[in-house]
Amino acid sequence: MGSRAVALVCRDAEVAGARFGAPAEATGAVWTRTGRPFYPPLLTERLLARLRSAAETAGLFDELNTGWLLFDAELMPWSAKAEELLRTQYAAVGAAARTALPAALEMLEQAAGAGLDVMALLDRTKARVANAEAFRAAYLRYCWPTDGLDGIKVAPFQVLAGESAAFAGRPHAWHLDITDRLARADPGLIQPTARFFADTTDPGSLAGATAWWEELTAAGGEGMVVKPADSLVRGGRGLVQPGLKVRGREYLRIIYGPDYTEEANLDRLRKRSLGHKRSLALREYALGLEALDRTVRGEPLWRVHECVFAVLALESEPVDPRL
């Protein structure tokens, strides 16, 4: 698990300055999903230098006839960017549970030994202790020490655009082939994206995809994103949802809390309404595509920002926090 990032990698500072108005000597940018710089300038330039070198080695600038590339990616580990969130939210919950629950369990065991009828509460507390340990193990799986770029991993999964075109219409196999080439060029930094191509009309293929997901999540993986083979698909009602996250049981423990697997909590989660979330995702997707097209056409920055600010406005709409 990492933090979502968009990386603008320019062939040189001249391209970055002339095309995007970047500061002197900057060769691009790495943004968070809300448009903020991911790293300080010096570390950003070190990261861009590695990405640019990988793109040059893979021959992407010449092949795509471009002086710049825009990548959609995950930066790992999670702790490299979200250390404060980990400390104040996840680690705090884990520490509180691992401090209070064992003491409660000890007292209940003593009470049970004395003949008091506390077995139901004792069993529930034992389950909560196990849940707390599983919660801690779940978020620690996505944290490891880093020093500068040492320990950092970048997992690009889509080439959004270049000087010659926006690439949203290219099939996912094309995007993944490019990310594989980048990973081969710099395996120390760039991590390829595992994938499984399934035929939704073939039960055997679907069973294979399910088994692949189960094996992936059992080994500690976050899950998978189910996407149509084509990146940009239109149906009878317009754009088709570009991707659906299917996360594993233990990763969801981080999202919903240590005890989310208790039946009463699962029953409450099953009653969520996803319609508003899906509608927001499709509108943000359409705005993102328009922003890319305007960028490639060389339209003024304020025209691109119209789309960006519209996405940020949609992000401010209240959505069920359990989604």
Describe the model:
The chain has 11 helices and 8 strands. The chain is an alpha+beta fold. Among the domains are: 1-77 and 147-193, DNA ligase/mRNA capping enzyme (D-amino Acid Aminotransferase, Chain A, domain 1, 2-Layer Sandwich); 83-140. The strands form 3 sheets. A 4-stranded antiparallel sheet has the order 2-1-3-4. Strand 6 and strand 7 (238-239) form a beta hairpin.
Intertermini distance: 17 Å
Helical proportion, percent range: 40-55%
Proportion of residues in β-strands = 5-15%
Question: What is the gyration radius calculated from CA atoms?
Answer: 23 Å
- Biggest β-sheet, characterized? 4 strands, antiparallel
Give a concise summary:
This protein is α+β, with helices and mostly antiparallel strands. It is built from eleven helices and eight strands.
Write the layout of secondary structure elements.
Blueprint: E1 3-10, H1 13-20, E2 28-32, H2 41-57, H3 60-63, E3 68-76, H4 83-113, H5 119-140, E4 153-162, H6 172-185, H7 203-218, E5 223-226, E6 234-235, E7 238-239, E8 244-247, H8 249-256, H9 263-269, H10 275-296, H11 301-315
